[in-house]
Prior knowledge:
The structure is a single chain. 50% of the residues lie in helices and 20% in strands. The protein is built from 16 helices and 16 strands. It has helices at 8-22, 31-46, 72-77, 86-93, 150-201, 206-221, 262-270, 287-291, 294-297, 331-394, 399-427, 437-452, 463-466, 471-492, 524-528, 531-541, and strands spanning 48-56, 62-68, 98-100, 122-129, 132-142, 225-231, 237-244, 256-258, 274-277, 303-311, 314-323, 455-459, 496-503, 507-514, 545-550, 556-563.
Amino acid sequence: MEPGLLTREQLEERLAALHRASLELVQEISPEALMERIATLAMEQVGAQYAAVGILNEEGQLDRFIPIGMSPEEIRRMAHPPVGKGLIGALMRGSSTIRLADLTTDPRSAGFPPHHPPMTSFLGVPIRRGEEQLGQIYLTNKLNAPEFTADDQVVIEMLASYAAVALFNARLVQRLTERESTLTRRNENLALLNDMAQTLASSADIDTMIDRALTQVMDYLKLEAGEIFLRHDDGNHLRLAAHRSSTLPALWSKTEFRFGEGIIGQTADSGQAQRLDLPALRPSADENHHFLNEAILQSTVRQIACTPLNGASGVFGVLCAASSHEKALDELEMQFLSAISFWVGTAIENTRLNVQQRRLAVLEERERIGMDLHDGIIQDIYAVGLTLEHARLLLGDDPAAARQRIDQAIADLNSTIRDIRAYILDLRPRKLHEENLMDGLRRLVAEFRANTLVDVNVSGPTPEEASLIPPSAAVALFHICQEALANIAKHAHARHVHVSLWMTNERAVLEVSDDGRGFDTSKVQLTLGHGLSNMQTRAHNAGGDIELTSEPGAGTTILVWVPLH
């Protein structure tokens, strides 16, 4: 019988005790605490001086190593922990237990690092779950015996089977915890992105937009500083547009970068996020060291992340985030910064497009007015001048004809004055003030009559009935009537105009008709310019629709309806 072997009863008692002790293992969910508990339990069960547990990562490399039995001073004095060579490596690569009386004589042994305590007897058992090796249990220096016995091997192999279940459960719990943490962070990110969307949607000013975006990002990620560089109009430079920090000055020693220059220019040029780790920055090898503000190099900032403000048509700027956290910004945080930057870039692009669109609309309107004035009013005034010149020549020979020419000139001037008033009527802004729709329509009609001298009347419900029309629908009908009267003044040459408003159970209906010269509806855009388009847009935005009927010489009728509910 092998020395040191237990009787059957003793072995069964030890295995039963091990089973009871191992039940505690599955309750431990911290991997480090579990490894320490396994090593301690193994050392106690077989009477070893030293014990250790090694855990492998998903690539099969030694990830963590927890020793038991050595003092903190002994651990500190060793140059490095085991790296997976020698007997430890053999056990990692194999699937069988290794039991040795003297590990120093085994050819697989790689020796010990300096200051390592002496070890002789050895017992190494792999912790396996099926075909997968999770880690190993190491025991050295059997107490009260020259080496570990076969019974010790049985006990530790049993412990390894319990440890496999416990380690697998701990890993599973850790993964679930990490997944829950990731989902929680993603939900928080989505909530902030939603807030950011509302911020960007409610901001028409770029400066306000980037200020709010920077503030929200810095508060959420606990950043030390944040900056935004915007692309200049020349397209080749980025200029500092915003800096936010309660403790730090500007991150960079300059406020303008060319595309491709430094991490700012490189981020804009590539359209990809980049990170700068300050502790690893080498002054002689990295140009960003030269660009960084000296105060930042002396501060607690450890990392600067730069993400491009991408839009549909290119890069509009760069967002810089400075972090003093010991842990670098992780992939999820970088994805969040990139998402924020994309939203800001898109919002900037939309804002600039809206500004350009408004400028273009103003230019188009100015061009239209200029053409109308040139082809209409200026030509009429020129014709009056020719008529008066002709009258001057007739004064001596035919006074009666001269008076006739002068009367004609006066009539033409009055007509021109009416045209000018029509333009004033069309261009002057007008709102539906603290009044109901019928009062507003009567005011429009009175102004139209005074400026055009055209006979116009209005009919409709009582003010109380008109007050039932929703405010947004009332405003739409008011502006449509205003546009219709302006078009009549400019184009119709009408003698009579009628404005009528009535209501059904579901709708409010407005009709504006005139007995003017009318037009071919197939050429309506040439006749009315932007007028009909504006009226259609207002009607559709209010949930209604518009219908226009006209024939040359037969006048024009505009019929529009909007819902009451």
